[in-house]
């Protein structure tokens, strides 16, 4: 079974116990409604993988019900028990009863959202956050000579300061400041803290000297602020921690090749190479916690200048069984907790 249930097993002569659990971050592109059979595919994949926690991005609560509540009901029909927290723009699922929940950064005018749940498993409290950050003023598009909201061609910024000036117009930094402030309370309470989300922003670990002339970075080395703020606050980027080699393991999660969608319907910058890693799972160090595996969940292909390409990298993929419901790829992280 690919989905690792929370297992409590004896390990070692000292009677040490080990908990294994998985976290899935998944941008589902407005509940998969853009893709025929998309919603059903989301349910089927979660039932297959059985992640312990799911952080959703880009949900819209269609059909008169909250997306996460509807997912929980659909999973119950398949014999899978999950608990949900409020969903709009982003959302959360937990295999464990929810003790507490909070809106950390409320969605308003497409400027993003952050929600939090606290679950208790085997006496250990975990705070799980989900984020879908502001998609307006996407400065990494401007670097490629395209306006981030209308996709019109513009002059390419020549300096990093120009890029960061555009980046400052979004509310992504504001949202992450709210997260860091709330997460400090969890850390002080002794909780394990996890964050998953589509940040709509690249990582400062990816736009470096080795990649400055790749992927239409136009020679720029950019200290992208959201991931840098999380790094400074002590949070660890699971994918980059497990795969530090940026060239062999770029880990692109966007844009995913989806054979059910004509490329002309994918309106992002058709003349540029906008492949990015913008979907993340972060965690804070916790006694006995170890990251044991991370995979890209979704198709191996991407969209490059409006063409479908198969990535020739060392990235490890967990391929879907059937319909792929979104234009993103997900991230599935496996953790081990020894105590």
Automatic annotation (TrEMBL):
Membrane-crossing segments per the record: none
Domain Endonuclease/exonuclease/phosphatase: 24-328
Coiled coil: none
The protein's name in its UniProt record: Endonuclease/exonuclease/phosphatase family protein
SUPFAM superfamilies: DNase I-like
Keywords, sorted A to Z: Endonuclease, Hydrolase, Nuclease
Single annotated GO MF: endonuclease activity
Pfam short name (any one): Exo_endo_phos
């Amino acid at each position: 079974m690919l989905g690792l249930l929370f297992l409590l097993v004896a390990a070692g002569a000292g009677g040490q116990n080990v908990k294994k659990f998985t976290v899935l971050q998944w941008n589902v592109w407005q509940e998969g409604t853009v893709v025929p059979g998309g919603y059903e595919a989301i349910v089927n994949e979660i039932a297959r993988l059985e992640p312990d926690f799911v952080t959703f991005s880009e949900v819209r609560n269609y059909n008169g019900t909250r997306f996460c509540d509807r997912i929980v009901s659909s999973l119950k029909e398949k014999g899978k028990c999950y608990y949900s927290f409020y969903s709009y723009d982003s959302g959360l699922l937990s295999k464990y009863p929810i003790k507490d929940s909070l809106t950390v950064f409320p969605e308003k005018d497409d400027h993003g959202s952050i929600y939090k749940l606290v679950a208790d498993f085997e006496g250990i409290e975990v705070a799980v956050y989900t984020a879908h950050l502001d998609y307006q003023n996407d400065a990494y598009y401007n670097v490629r000579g395209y306006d981030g909201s209308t996709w019109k061609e513009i002059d390419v910024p020549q300096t990093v300061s120009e890029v960061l000036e555009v980046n400052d117009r979004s509310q992504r930094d504001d949202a992450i400041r709210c997260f860091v402030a709330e997460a400090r309370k969890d850390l002080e309470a002794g909780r394990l803290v996890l964050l998953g989300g589509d940040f709509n922003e690249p990582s400062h670990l990816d736009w470096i000297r080795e990649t400055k002339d790749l992927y239409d970075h136009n020679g720029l080395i950019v200290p992208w602020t959201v991931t840098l703020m999380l790094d400074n606050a002590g949070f660890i980027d699971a994918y980059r921690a497990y795969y530090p080699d940026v060239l062999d393991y770029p880990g692109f999660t966007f844009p995913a090749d989806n054979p059910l969608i004509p490329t002309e319907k994918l309106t992002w910058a058709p003349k540029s190479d906008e492949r990015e890693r913008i979907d993340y799972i972060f965690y804070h160090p916790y006694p006995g916690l170890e990251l044991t595996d991370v995979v890209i969940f979704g198709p191996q292909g991407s969209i490059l200048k409006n063409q479908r390409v198969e990535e020739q990298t060392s990235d490890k993929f967990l391929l879907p069984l059937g319909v792929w419901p979104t234009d993103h790829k997900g991230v599935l992280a496996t953790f081990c907790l020894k105590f």
